[in-house]
Automatic annotation (TrEMBL):
Record has Repeat as a keyword: no
Superkingdom of this protein's organism: Bacteria
Coiled coil (UniProt feature): none
Keywords: Signal
Name assigned to this protein: Right handed beta helix domain-containing protein
Gene3D superfamilies xref list: Single-stranded right-handed beta-helix, Pectin lyase-like
Signal peptide: 1-20
Tagged with keyword Signal: yes
Annotated NCBIfam families: beta_helix_1 (TIGR03805), para_beta_helix (TIGR03804)
Length: 399
């Protein structure tokens, strides 16, 4: 590890630091010890610069220091390989604030690729996470996995092979996911139990499902909503579902473009959607039993508008899929609603110039006293959420 002193202000510091250091780590023998030592020794304002090459690691890495940048030479130049990882944890765990991660790859971690927990104002920029053996149920669950945080920027990230979600943001707020590419995951991008999220400019293809917006019961933070999904290219998400049994995403049908479940105030607009065997868009309730009196299992105030639809519904991956295609002459409608809820008040607003299929399904009987939401197609639209605005320093760090 090489230390270089530089005169610099910490990127996010309210009070500038007089001097910061760059701790440089090169590939070679003892990479595990040298890289973890740099992450432990870093002080607020420092940069851990990881040189080009392959770093063969046998254990997970961790960072718990505020205002640190971890920078590689590029996602195809600096490769942190966890193929020889002995434990089952994530590749890199971040538990500190005001962190920038950019310009490196994480490959073949036993658990999640990069997890940040309680890490506010974190930037993921030009990161690649990949399981190089292709889609397998034994791959780690999540590629990029920020949770329980506020102010998250994910920009220019690539994830392949996650057995749950390539990019997952959970129980958080003020989120931007943009300019990223996800493929060969079960879920490409998932926003779960979170508020104020913008998902735009991404490409999701060859996943089981492209982009998912969920709300689940029995979690510390619920009632997610205020999500905008727009300007994405979501096509040919046709990978068979390889999630381990029992995971909620194991129920996502192969050939799903965008799926919104039990969320409030989600706007899906200006996306290019095509080549989905099941549907381009699915809007549904949470269909399993639960014991959480504060949970609402229904989708509310969901707006689907201004999207461009290509082929869909040609081989639905659901029970009775053959019947659906036959009933509609070879292609089921590209937008589905599961049909739960009372159709007479606020709810769903679908104005895309395509048919909408209501499946007329009953909700799996909940064990709480939650009141059913009321749903109406083409009801007056709920206002579109405001754009997510992150601190200027975060945007500067992503340039």
């Amino acid at each position: 590890m090489i230390r270089t002193a530089v005169a610099a202000a910490a990127l996010f510091a309210l009070v500038p630091l007089a001097q910061a250091e760059t701790l440089t780590v090169s590939a070679g023998p003892d990479a595990q010890e040298r890289l973890q030592e740099a992450l432990l020794d870093a002080q607020p304002g420092d940069t851990v610069a990881i040189g080009p090459g392959r770093f063969d690691l046998t254990d997970g890495l961790s960072l718990d220091v505020d205002r640190v940048t971890v920078r590689g030479a590029g996602p195809d130049q600096t490769i942190l390989s966890f193929k020889g990882q002995l434990g089952a944890g994530e590749g890199l765990l971040v538990t500190s604030d005001d962190v920038v991660l950019r310009g490196f790859a994480v490959e073949d971690s036993r658990g999640d690729g990069i997890k940040s927990k309680g890490a506010n104002r974190i930037v993921y920029k030009d990161i690649r996470v990949e399981w190089t053996g292709g889609p397998k149920g034994t791959n780690g669950a999540y590629g990029v996995y920020p949770v329980s945080s506020s102010a998250i920027l994910i920009d220019g990230v690539t994830v392949k092979g996650a057995s749950d979600a390539g990019i997952y943001v959970g129980q958080s707020e003020r989120i931007i996911v943009r300019n990223s590419t996800v493929s060969q995951n079960v879920a490409g991008i998932e926003i779960e139990n979170s508020n104020q999220a913008d998902v735009y400019g991404n490409t999701a293809t060859a996943n089981t499902g492209g982009i998912l917006v969920f709300d689940l019961p029995n979690l510390p933070r619920m009632n997610g909503g205020g999500v905008r999904v727009y300007g994405n290219k979501v096509f040919a998400n046709d990978t068979p579902n390889f999630a381990p049994k029992g995971n909620i995403v194991a129920t996502v049908p192969r050939g799903t473009g965008i799926l919104v479940m039990a969320n409030d105030g989600v706007h899906v607009f200006d996306n290019d959607l095509s080549e989905h065997a099941t549907a381009n868009v699915i809007i549904m309730s949470y269909r399993q039993g639960y014991e959480d009196a504060n949970y609402n299992p229904y989708p509310r105030r969901v707006v689907i508008s201004g999207n461009r639809h290509g082929r869909a519904g040609f081989a639905p991956g659901v029970e009775g899929g053959d019947f659906l295609t036959a009933a509609f002459g070879g292609n089921a409608p590209p937008v589905w609603w599961d049909g739960t809820g009372a159709v007479d008040a606020l709810g769903l607003h679908v104005t895309d110039a395509v048919p909408v299929l209501s499946l007329g399904l009953a909700l799996a009987a909940p064990t709480s006293s939650a009141k059913p939401a009321k749903v109406e197609l083409n009801a007056p639209a709920a206002p579109r959420p405001a754009a997510v605005v992150l601190p200027p320093a975060m945007e500067a760090a992503a340039r």
